């Protein structure tokens, strides 16, 4: 008896949406909000641009979804840090979260790049600004809540995170100069 032809399984809209988000993450990381087109994302995802528009009404909505995805991944990473903290003091929890974040952006550098592009676009794009503000509002409250840190400790946690972005972006760790040593001193990166 001949073998039955294998059935072709079509992906669901949610699976396609995830594919488009992953593809868009890479595209926006590489070229930013202004330099990326939905056509490029569609081509990379292997779907039509019209289908991208069925999933996301416009490029702005797609970018906002990518930014939200980044905040969600960062939150997951921070939670992993909390779970692995060497103690329950604010210092121990903040240190563990900082380490988890440093590992995350080393392993998934697209998250770092999208964050930087989103912060730049937030200057002139109100919808992007609102998503970035909401993302940081949630993140600050999460960090404050799980660490029990004081206002200065939480502020220092985020300030070091931003400095970590700069150190990684300009490869300060790879530069043998006083300015680079000053900026990268005490900053964990992998």
UniProtKB/TrEMBL annotation:
The keyword Transmembrane does not apply. InterPro entries: Homeodomain-like_sf, HTH-type_TetR-like_transc_reg, HTH_TetR. Signal peptide: none annotated. It comes from the Bacteria. Residues 37-56 bind DNA. Keywords: DNA-binding. It holds the Pfam family TetR_N. This is TetR/AcrR family transcriptional regulator. Residues 14-74 form the HTH tetR-type domain. It comes from Saccharothrix hoggarensis.
């Amino acid at each position: 008896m001949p073998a039955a032809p294998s059935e072709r399984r079509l992906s669901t809209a949610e699976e396609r949406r995830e594919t488009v988000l992953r593809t868009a993450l890479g595209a926006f990381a590489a070229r930013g909000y202004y330099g990326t087109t939905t056509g490029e994302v569609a081509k990379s995802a292997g779907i039509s641009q019209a289908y991208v528009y069925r999933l996301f009404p416009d490029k702005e909505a797609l970018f906002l979804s990518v930014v939200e995805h980044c905040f969600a991944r960062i939150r997951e990473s921070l939670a992993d840090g909390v779970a692995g903290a060497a103690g329950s003091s604010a210092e121990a929890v903040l240190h563990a979260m900082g380490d988890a974040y440093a590992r995350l952006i080393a392993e998934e550098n697209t998250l770092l790049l999208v964050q930087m592009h989103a912060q730049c676009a937030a200057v002139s794009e109100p919808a992007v600004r609102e998503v970035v503000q909401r993302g940081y509002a949630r993140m600050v409250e999460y960090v404050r809540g799980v660490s029990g840190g004081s206002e200065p400790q939480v502020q220092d946690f985020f300030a070091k995170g931003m400095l970590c972005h700069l150190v990684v972006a300009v490869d300060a760790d790879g530069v043998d100069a006083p300015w680079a040593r000053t900026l990268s001193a005490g900053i964990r990166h992998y």
